[in-house]
Specification:
Porin, 16-stranded antiparallel beta barrel, 6 helices, 52% strand, globular
């Protein structure tokens, strides 16, 4: 804990001469302007950087039908600090920008690969080479694409399967090219993971850990029809290992296509996600299979995700939103094809989140919310008969507040 406070103090001292960064970036959250807690006229050198407390707090009432034959049952209530991520960002010079964000709601354990605590989301610098080119280095968001991941995490009440199970913040380098106000392209070369191969997958038959476990990510952000239709599309390839039986690389191909349509007060966002994994990186299929069948991460899994977000800004103080999602998990290996009733399909995971948000203040980015987070997990007959899987549902009614509270 002392080391964390020392790091924050040193960050303040080192980056006082920086300038606030105004260019669009990943996961900035609400872009509406709000005043900082410390008035700008009193900030002095501090006006050249930003300190933000990203918070989400709620009173949760939880429901589940797991191990119940009589439908959903109330299981308990509690107050929860769902998110708290402290962030510093700014510019050292007019060409060098930095960003640091630490998550206080995650264990402070150093990762084996990048040597940073898993709680650290972001720790990178960006150098502006020209008006169109930027270079970044450090731990950053893997620029997956799609709108769900592009939001500030405090704005997402529940993530879909692929993003929830992924390593979303990875160490490496990135290059960004802004062709014009309507098109931006990003290319990243990152560590494929934060854990070692053995920590992530365990002992694997016929798999030899790659000596260069890197990930390539390419992203396009587009804007058309005067900003009414926008896109965040990406492709990523992760090099994980080498299959000694086939003499081929073991990797993961991931495509994310995010689409946004603005229609006055109503905005609709639809994300399509597809992850083809030679080795089960997402891990949902492997977790479903009992150890007495296959006591390791299985091969050839495919995950498909659909995410729809509708929000209607009734007026400056009231926002209505609805999120629906469907995540499909498939297993395309032939290890179990001799079993009667074999089916590649393992499960569908459904989700729906109706939300009411209230913004009481004009000059503070603080909103109160009430919503219900409902999830249903439906397994195939094969998964039930062969693996003992059981359908179940969960629910969470919550009331709380969200704020990316800007101190300066």
């Amino acid at each position: 804990m002392k080391n964390r406070y020392l790091t924050l103090i040193l960050s303040l001292i080192l980056f006082l001469p920086s300038l606030i960064f105004a260019q669009q970036e990943m996961q900035v959250g609400d872009t509406t302007y709000y005043k900082t807690l410390i008035p700008s006229v009193k900030q002095g050198l501090l006006k050249n950087m930003s300190m933000i407390a990203n918070m989400r707090f709620a009173f949760q009432n939880e429901f589940s039908d797991l191990n119940s034959n009589s439908g959903m049952k109330y299981t308990g209530s509690r107050f929860v600090n769902q998110q708290f991520r402290l962030e510093f960002k700014g510019q050292v010079t007019d060409r060098v920008y930095f960003r640091f964000r630490d998550r206080y709601t995650r264990a402070q354990t150093s990762e084996s690969v990048d040597n940073l605590s898993r709680s650290v989301d972001l720790a990178f610098i960006r150098v502006k080479v020209s008006n169109k080119w930027d270079i970044s280095a450090g731990k950053m968001c893997a620029d997956w694409g799609a709108y769900e991941f592009d939001y500030n995490p405090i704005d997402i009440y529940e993530y879909s399967d692929i993003i929830e199970m992924a390593d979303n913040f990875l160490t490496g380098v990135g290059v960004s090219y802004t062709a014009n106000v309507r098109n931006q392209f990003t290319f990243q070369l990152l560590d494929s993971r934060t854990k070692t191969f053995d920590e992530l997958y365990g002992v694997q038959p016929n798999q030899e850990e790659s000596k260069m476990p890197l990930a390539f990510v390419g992203n396009w952000r587009g804007s058309m029809y005067d900003g009414k239709f926008n896109t965040i599309w990406s492709y990523a390839y992760h090099n994980e290992a080498h299959n000694t039986s086939t003499d081929k690389p073991t990797g993961m191909n991931y495509i994310a296509l995010g689409n946004q349509l603005k229609m006055g007060k109503l905005t609709a966002e639809y994300d399509f996600k597809w992850s083809q994994e030679d080795l089960d990186r997402t891990g949902i299929v492997s977790a479903t299979i009992p150890d007495n069948l296959y006591p390791y991460a299985v091969e050839k899994t495919v995950y498909v995700g659909h995410w729809l977000h509708l929000y209607y800004r009734v007026n400056p103080k009231v926002n209505l939103a609805l999120v629906t999602m469907l995540d499909v998990a498939n297993w395309k290996d032939n290890l179990d094809q001799n079993y009667p009733g074999f089916d590649e399909h393992i499960r569908n995971a459904w989700g729906f989140i109706p939300t009411v948000e209230y913004y009481p203040f004009k000059d503070v980015n603080l909103r109160f919310f009430a919503n219900y987070v409902g999830r249903s997990y439906v397994y195939s007959k094969y998964a039930k008969d062969r693996m003992g899987a059981l359908d179940y549902s969960t629910g969470r009614f919550q009331i709380g507040f969200i704020s990316p509270l800007a101190f300066f």
